[in-house]
Amino acid sequence: MIRFENVSKVYARGARPALDDVSVDVSRGEFVFLVGASGSGKSTFLRLVLREERPTGGRVYVAGRDLSRLSSWKVPSLRRSIGVVFQDFRLLPNKTVHENVAFALQVIGKPRHTISTTVPEVLEMVGLDGKEKRMPHELSGGEQQRVAIARAFVNRPQILLADEPTGNLDPTTSLGIMRLLDRINRTGTTVVMATHDDEIVNEMRKRVVELSTGSVVRDEIDAVYGHRESILPAVGQTPVLDAPGRDAPAVVHRVQVTPEPADLEAERAAEAAAARAAESGDQQPAAALPAAPAVEDRPVDQRPVAQAPVEPVGPPAADRVPEPGSPDDVVQQVLREHERVRAGREA
Ligand SMILES: Nc1ncnc2c1ncn2[C@@H]1O[C@H](COP(=O)(O)OP(=O)(O)OP(=O)(O)O)[C@@H](O)[C@H]1O
After folding, report:
1. Which of 75, 100, 239, 339 is the most buried (most CB within 10 A)?
2. DSSP character string of 20-88
3. What is the structure's pLDDT at 333?
4. Count of other CB atoms within 10 angstroms of residue 204
5. Given a cut of 80, is residue 187 above it in pLDDT?
6. CA neighbours within 13 Å on the CB side: how many for 258?
7. How far is CA 281 from CA 82, 232, 276, 327, in A?
8. For the ranges 65-69, 173-177, 256-260, which has the lowest average pLDDT?
9. What pairing do the DSSP bridges indicate for beta strands 82-86 and 65-66?
10. Which of 82, 20, 22, 28 is nearest to 52 (CA)?
11. Closest Cα to atom 7, ligand 1: which residue?
């Protein structure tokens, strides 16, 4: 789903690379934590996936597309297959909860009746039913992040990128947010999350890709946040590099995701649903979303695969509507609107 092949990124001539010969392969449906010290290149990685930045070396593939060959007018459609969640939520302060989520669908030209059915379903999924009319400032931090996640997910992206989504939240609230992201991941959405939150990473036990000054120094499944030293004795893992650098291979462990039988069933059903959706020329209605009771109550490590929502992960809206010069770039529109409102406030 996401492949980095020997990717380097140097922002300014003479500066040290923000990413240095990074090769990482993220399979469809995986959940990956990107960890590493401040400045290690996590956000740069995410920006390259969104094609907000271009690599100075190597290639980035997203959903089979080589981003270096993607013409600019196709970037909005690429971004429609990617949801993004930020540390500071970036909600539109002058819009209600419902309007914030609806905005992501309006931008891509979804009809009003689709919006009016889809938004409540997604808000229910994230545990915010009954709060549709609230303004962002009337919500807790955790609730605001749930709105942001609903907005990122309402368009059923294939990929969800999260840049420090729990960075502004207390530990208990963070755990609730992680459970929500976990549920979204179980629908088939690939999740890549940059974080400094060791408690969360240790609790979730997902794949962890660790960056250090732009290089991958660890890539492990079922991993903890840890430090490189502490993972050396891990059983069944390729030994971790002692001194990663130019001469050393950047990827220390390739992940094989073996779906459980129930996952396979869900995947097949999702594929069938996706095929039907492709035939009808529309995405699957959000009615297939699960209700969200007890998001908070379920242990993170419990795998309720039997109840796992059967979600189509495709077809990417991106592939269906290539519109030259299209303004329907959700990420950009949301950020632009956010900036516009903030500038208006400051003026
Ligand atoms: N737009 C930019 N122009 C120049 N240098 C940049 C730019 N963005 C990032 N960098 C540099 O690239 C390196 C990696 O930054 P990046 O933001 O990717 O790290 P990070 O791991 O996400 O850090 P943090 O955890 O603090 O968010 C840093 O040295 C940073 O100063």
Report:
1. 100
2. EEEEEEE-TT-EEEEE-STTSSHHHHHHHHTTSS--SEEEEEETTEEGGG--GGGHHHHHHTEEEEETT
3. 65
4. 26
5. yes
6. 0
7. 19, 50, 8, 21
8. 256-260
9. unpaired
10. 82
11. 11
Q: What's the pTM?
A: 0.73
| Atom of ligand 1 minimally distant from the CA of 44 | 18
Cβ contact 264:293 at 8 Å: no
Q: How far apart are CA 13 and CA 205, in angstroms?
A: 38
- Give residues with Cβ within 8 angstroms of 189, minimum separation 6: 29, 83, 153, 156, 157, 158, 159, 160, 311, 313
Q: Take atom 18 of ligand 1 and give the residue whose Cα is closest.
A: 41
CB contact at 8 A, 126 and 150: yes
**Type and span of the H or E element at 266:** helix 261-280
**pLDDT value of position 71:** 94
Average pLDDT of the residues of the chain: 77
Residue nearest to atom 1 of ligand 1 (CA): 11
State which of 4, 40, 210 you would mutate to test the pocket of ligand 1, scoring each by most atoms of that ligand within 8 A of its C-beta: 40
Atom 6 in ligand 1: residue holding the nearest Cα: 11
Give, as one character, the DSSP assignment of residue 10: -
Cα–ligand 1 centroid distance for 52 (angstroms): 13
Cβ proximity of 183 and 299 under 8 Å: no
Q: Name residues whose C-beta falls within 8 Å of residue 68's C-beta, 6 or more positions apart in sequence.
A: 54, 55, 59, 60
Q: Does domain 2-346 have CATH number 1.10.287.80?
A: no
Confidence of residue 147 (pLDDT cuts 50, 70, 90): very high
221: helix, strand or coil:
coil
Residue 125 three-state SS: helix
